[in-house]
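Residues determine shape. Next comes a sample protein:
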Amino acid sequence: MHENATGGVDRRSLLGWGGLAAAGAAAAATPMVGAQPAHTAPAPAGAWIPRDCLPGGAYDRYVAELAAADRFSGVVLLSHRGRTVLSRSYGMADKERGIPNHERVAFNLSSAGKPFVAVALLQLAQQGKLKLADTVGTHLTGFAEDIAEQVTIHHMLAGISGLDSPDEDLQRVFQSREEVHDYYEGWARQSRLVAPVGTPTDHAGAEIAISAMIVEAVAGTSYWDYVEEHVFRRCGMTGTAFATRPQWLTDTHIAHAYMTLADGSRVDAVRNLDKGSPHPYELGKNPARLFIAAPGDAGFATAPDLVRFAHGLSDGTLLDRPWADVFTAAKVPHGPASFGAYQVPVSIVQGQWVYSRAGGDPGGGANWNIYPDTGWVGVILGNHDDFPLVEMIERETQAVTGGR
């Protein structure tokens, strides 16, 4: 879907890099009717918390107003130095079964899950099992000669491979992990080099698929299993997984995706595989037709688990500090104060760094922001596709970085 920031999830922008890169981000405590608050611990002694981040503050009120107008269904969370400052849940995870959204519900990450492949490759590089300068042909066969010999892991993670991606079969209903895996391996091998290596790509999905294939070739296991063991489990992300469609349908802790149709109505995408998005950028797409997320993409995560992921990046759980710095170091300029890192946009906002990643699919959207200079983490997870995610990202960032 390609809509403006106030009208709905701008997935074309979010697919490109997402987060603040898509947003172009800059800037009285009353109970919120309809919100489901989670436990909030007091901030550490002496820590200054911007009033706009507090329960009842400007950001809390803004999200509550969206929910009251049926413009947001999902979870928002703000964490400061490991403690929850604000957590709100709105709407239904499964309307048919009457299950509300709450903090322990996992949402489809879409492109917000792509940084996991970068972390996986950096772990393998840290262990000396590969080099970021390795070409595709160092580890894989069956690719065009120019891709095999010229495109490196660094180029793909930085989004400067010059690759284009073949069209996907959006109508196909996949029935197994093996079918998804085999399809996307073949799909990735059909990719083409359409610009000189080093040229920024327009969200070339092949970069992610090929990167995931390299993880599998080096680690000797499936991408899904590697990330679940070496990223999710390491961080204690117990509510996060690459769930299958049957799990999405039946697990009460996974939010269903409510997709907007051409007439403005919403339909449960998981229960209606015959329905697809009406929007030209992804015409006919229904994310539930995949039996499991394509390797390198998506996954389902809870808001607290994404906070755990953020802390795993900073405390050495996932990567030694020098390698974590490689992950988030600015590599490609995107704007006056925004850059591409390894599948993570990084921006300078109010004199501080913000690391972020967003994603959107028919029926949902997601974003996580890490504010490393001040210890904040912000998460937005939604299971409608017509909520103003880009605007919400901006409002969150303004609340966190707006100054005393």
Q: What stands out?
A: Residues 1-7, 25-46 have pLDDT under 50 and may be disordered. Residues 205-219 form the longest helix (15 residues). Residues 116-225 form a domain with the Beta-lactamase fold (CATH 3.40.710.10). The two ends are 37 Å apart (CA to CA).
